[in-house]
Recover the amino acids of this structure.
């Protein structure tokens, strides 16, 4: 009979190392090395993944001194939040089970065996370490924090139909494949209710075991505040609603040009005002040498080239790359008489080879969503950009808008401002501009693609929308950042003298 309270169980011996430990760290210089040392004392720990969330104290320097081969380090180029660091760490876990460990000393790594019991015995998919489940020692601190935790746990339980006692606990240990499938999107402490809601929706077998807790005061470095509590309530409601999860990559069409994508390209070809709106938004951020990745037949490229030619610049160069043979044929014919423009037949990364000298701007218009490993692409782009160079993205917005139309067009995803910030932080870049565009188009896409199940570029509606609505939208949105939109304009700059964010080591 397994005894999970003492950490003895039947399915494994204490010599089996099967656990990845993810440690999000932000300004924990005083405790990080001590904490990692305690984690490494556990015989079940096979790897430790420390994610530094752009600490401003000496945390990164302390982390860099950790030489144990089980320790891997990651770093965000700028601060994103605990949730983003957790998601980044979990995505790199390689062992059978994974657990989140705060970088302070509030939770005791010696209790990993207690959490592992139900997992290795095969009766649980995830185990929560509850600070209120038993009589183990815990430091007496803030009453209102304790009450708030219980209220949040109750609210979460009401939406998930679980009977947890401590939803907000740091200690959530689970099967790595399950945890990696959650696609966590919350950047800060909202990750706790998000993770719980998504586990409940997946029907995960969740167990609780009692753990000790050595809480700290704000003077000692505690970071969570009342705003995080408000956000947690919002997340409980948000993730209780039905959500659109992106399908597995193998389900996304990956042929050269799908019929649906060709329909979309044909519609965009005649959408003169829409293409002009995109070009007007992008042109001010172009440098002297620009590479456009995935130019298609050149609908946006031609608009950008016109604006560069009229700008009075004398030394500008424009390279337009396109992998589709048919689209490249049209593209090359359209730019053949322009000596400062070069068309290249090849995929996104191959286009870099066609640029002579420093590259100071890279443009992707409705292309990044077609790239399976967008993080690797953005990282490589950052490495090839000159100091101060810009990556300029126009991408479809709103995860909740993802539809069968997106899937048919070969879209792996739609983006949020948060997901773009994560991409940039992991590539060593920071956004200069991050704004929604085409707000009215959000309602149109939702109605046509999500509700009616039709392809948004079918019929006469796109033509009417382009002629009547887009000029007004372009003029208004050039002065404001709408709270939502069908697209996002993102301009990111590579800092002068900066490398990319630290990869796993």
């Amino acid at each position: 009979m397994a005894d999970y309270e003492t950490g003895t169980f039947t399915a494994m011996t204490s010599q089996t190392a099967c656990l990845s430990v993810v440690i999000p760290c932000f300004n924990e210089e005083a405790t990080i090395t001590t904490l990692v040392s305690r984690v490494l004392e556990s015989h079940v720990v096979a790897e430790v993944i420390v994610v530094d969330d752009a600490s401003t104290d000496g945390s990164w320097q302390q982390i860099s001194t950790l030489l144990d081969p089980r320790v891997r380090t990651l770093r965000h180029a700028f601060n994103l939040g605990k949730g983003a660091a957790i998601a980044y760490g979990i995505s790199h876990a390689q062992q059978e089970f994974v657990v989140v460990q705060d970088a302070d000393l509030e939770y005791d790594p010696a209790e990993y065996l207690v959490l592992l019991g139900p997992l290795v015995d095969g009766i649980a998919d995830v185990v929560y370490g509850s600070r209120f489940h038993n009589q183990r020692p815990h430091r007496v601190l803030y009453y209102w924090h304790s009450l708030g935790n219980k209220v949040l746990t109750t609210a979460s339980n009401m939406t998930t139909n679980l009977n947890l006692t401590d939803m907000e606990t740091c200690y959530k240990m689970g099967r790595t494949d399950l945890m990696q499938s959650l696609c966590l999107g919350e950047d800060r402490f909202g990750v706790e209710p998000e993770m719980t809601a998504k586990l409940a929706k997946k029907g995960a077998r969740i167990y609780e075991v009692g753990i000790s807790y050595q809480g700290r005061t704000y003077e000692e470095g505690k970071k969570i505040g009342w705003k995080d509590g408000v956000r947690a309530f919002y997340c409980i409601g948000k993730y209780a609603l039905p959500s659109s999860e992106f399908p597995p990559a193998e389900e996304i069409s990956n042929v050269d040009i799908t019929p649906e994508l060709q329909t979309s390209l044909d519609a965009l070809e005649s959408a003169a005002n829409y293409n002009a709106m995109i070009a007007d938004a992008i042109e001010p951020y172009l440098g002297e040498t620009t590479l456009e990745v995935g130019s298609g037949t050149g609908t946006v490229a031609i608009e950008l080239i016109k604006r560069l030619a009229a700008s009075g610049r004398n030394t500008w160069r424009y390279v337009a790359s396109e992998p589709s043979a048919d689209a490249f044929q049209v593209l090359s014919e359209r730019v053949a008489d322009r000596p400062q423009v070069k068309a290249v037949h090849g995929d996104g990364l191959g286009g870099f080879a066609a640029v002579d000298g420093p590259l100071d701007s890279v443009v992707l218009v409705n292309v990044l969503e077609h790239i399976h490993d967008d993080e690797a692409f953005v990282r490589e782009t950052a490495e090839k950009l000159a100091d101060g160079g810009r990556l300029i993205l126009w991408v479809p917005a709103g995860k909740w808008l993802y539809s069968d139309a997106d899937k048919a067009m070969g879209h792996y995803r739609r983006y949020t401002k948060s997901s773009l910030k994560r991409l940039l932080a992991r590539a060593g870049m920071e956004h200069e501009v991050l704004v929604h565009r085409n707000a009215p188009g959000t309602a149109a896409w939702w109605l046509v693609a999500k509700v009616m199940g039709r392809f948004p570029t079918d019929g006469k509606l796109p033509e009417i929308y382009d002629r009547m609505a887009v000029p007004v939208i372009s003029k208004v949105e050039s002065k404001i950042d709408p709270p939502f939109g069908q697209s996002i304009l993102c301009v990111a700059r590579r800092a002068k003298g900066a490398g990319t964010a630290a990869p796993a080591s």
Summary: The chain has a mean pLDDT of 87.
